Amino acid sequence: MKYLRKSLVVLMLNFFSFSAHADQSEFEVYRAEMPEKSESGFDLAMNAAQSPSQSESVQRSLIQAIGEYSYGLDDQFAIGVRLPIYHLENVWRGYGLLGEIKYIAPHSDQGFYWGSEIEAGYI
């Protein structure tokens, strides 16, 4: 791998209780960085939640993470693969696989920018 960009680690504390029927909302922070043409990159995003205990002696913690490998097709386009995993009761497990295409429009080094991401897969 010629290019390994700095990993983005986002740790957010969930202010809502975790349950099996919780809303699957997602929080992501994007940067204008993409791998350059013919180079690769890796990003990592994480979140953590504490479950409400049914009895006061048992509480569960859940850590979710998604790793993304990306490859630059040119200065504006990249393709990637995302692997979501979780850690519950001392076991790490994968729970899907996603493929994606990213586009970031040309922009200056400062200020706003726009882009698009299309992903398909299963969770």
Mean pLDDT: 75
Number of spatially distinct domains: 1
The count of DSSP E runs of length 2 or more, i.e. the number of strands, is 7
Number of helices: 0
How would you characterize the overall build of this protein?
Strands 1, 2, 3, 4, 5, 6 and 7 form a 7-stranded mixed sheet that branches. Mean pLDDT is 75; it is low at 1-23. The chain has strands at 11-13, 40-50, 61-72, 77-88, 91-94, 97-104, 115-122. The chain has one domain (11-122). Helix content is 0%, strand content 47%. The protein is mostly beta strands. Strand 3 (61-72) and strand 4 form a beta hairpin.
What are the main properties of this structure?
single chain; 123 residues; mainly beta; 7-stranded mixed β-sheet; 7 strands
